[in-house]
Amino acid sequence: MPQHRMSRRTHITTHNHIIGLPHFTFAHRSIACERHPERNEDSILVDELRGLAAVFDGVGGSAAGEIASQTAARAARQRWQDILEQHHIGHKMQPYLESCNDLDLCDALQQLVLEADEQVRTEGAHKAGTDDLATTVALAAFSRQPDARDYTMVYAHVGDSRIYLLRGDEPLQRLTSDDGLLAKLVENQIINEEDALRIDQAVRTDELSDTEFSYFRLRGGITQALGGPLPPTIHIDTISIHPGDRILLCTDGIHDNLTDQEIEETLRSEPRHASARVLVERSIQRSHQERSITVRAKPDDMSAIVITCRF
After folding, report:
1. Which GO terms of the molecular function aspect are on file (predicted)?
2. Of 74, 85, 16, whose CA–CA distance to 50 is shortest?
3. Confidence class of residue 279 from pLDDT cuts 50, 70 and 90?
4. Residues 28 and 94 in one domain
5. What range defines the domain where residue 236 resides?
6. 206 and 269 share a domain?
7. Which one, of 36, 28, 68, lies nearest residue 273 by Cα?
8. How many structural domains does the chain have?
């Protein structure tokens, strides 16, 4: 059986009281691939008190992948802590951001991801004994909007780890676009966006032509990552988060096995504390299915963080 590796939560104590980001519940689960249960190349960062969450998927298929994702996670956590400490000089001390107007969140996340990239290239490479290591990242940070119950979420990603938003009766929204083969085919006008989505969400071979199936099989190839040969192009955006919203951050072990519809059904049906665990369990079940049943079955490390904005 795979070994479960849970990320450690960070706690901040101020005047002997732990102060956390209000109105949010964080649920998370990360497991190693059954083919190498002693080594999880995914890493997750869950800092509930400072309003930060991220998933990292190490690239390389060896110990270097594990080192890359762990190094990036540590660097991101430390850089976010430094940013908040600098911001709170002369302000009332809170571990999270009370007002999104007081700090350029997009610039802050740009700094954070670039620091993680640099640490993978230097510290990570030194520890791994090779510069052939890299990791994806999908990261979200939260700040309360002034005079409102709503929050701002700024999010960033590099590679093919994803961020989804589920809001009320609206369809599940994928907030990120993979740095991968399908996006490159769309960019080069070989296929259109509708065909790319259909290929990505296929369950059986009879849903695809032979050429489309070849694209499907290669869809996991990413075009950039942290620690790669070139500095990454970081995709950053912001969105308002309202009570009742659920945000999912996941590595490709989740979204390669499960379709977006299956992810949505799980997020809607499961309690907020159980949703990440159930997503991983259903991904494991799918990974065990025969190829004659589905083309999505893929043994992999699997990580999910589900953040619920409570009423």
Report:
1. protein serine/threonine phosphatase activity
2. 85
3. very high
4. yes
5. 13-175+226-309
6. no
7. 28
8. 2
In a shared domain, residues 304 and 197:
no
Please choose, from the candidates 231, 234, 251, the residue with its C-alpha nearest in 3D space to the C-alpha of residue 54.
251
For residues 198 and 185, what is the distance between their CA atoms, to the nearest angstrom? 13
Residue type at position 226 = L
pLDDT at 96: 57
Residue 124 and residue 57 share a domain: yes
Across residues 5-13, what is the average pLDDT?
Answer: 34
DSSP-H helix ranges across the chain = 63-87, 105-119, 125-128, 181-187, 193-200, 210-217, 252-255, 260-269, 275-287
Q: What predicted TM-score, i.e. pTM, was given to this entire model?
A: 0.90
Q: Please report whether residue 2 resides in a domain.
A: no
Angle at 153 between CA 311 and CA 9, to 5 degrees: 80
**303 found inside a domain:** yes
Q: By C-alpha distance, which of 246, 257, 248, 247 is closest to 301?
A: 257
Residue where the block lists tokens 């991220």: 54
Residue 77 sits in the same domain as residue 208: no
